[in-house]
Fold this protein.
Amino acid sequence: MTRHTELRKMAEKSIEATKIHHVLLDIAEAFQNVCGECGGLPPGLPPQVYDDQTECQCQEE
């Protein structure tokens, strides 16, 4: 394997790792606002919309 091919493969692996890292960051951000009481999200709202002002299911009961 030539040095150029080796470098290209290393760069491709680095790009893949970066993509995976960004996906993991998105997932972590989505779960950041999960309710500490019930672990659930408010009904009908995706995680991105959920914030501290939004009441979760366990607070309604």
Observations:
- The two ends are 64 Å apart (CA to CA).
- Residues 38 and 58 are 6 Å apart (CA to CA).
- DSSP finds two helices and no strands in the chain.
- Residues 3-60 form one domain.
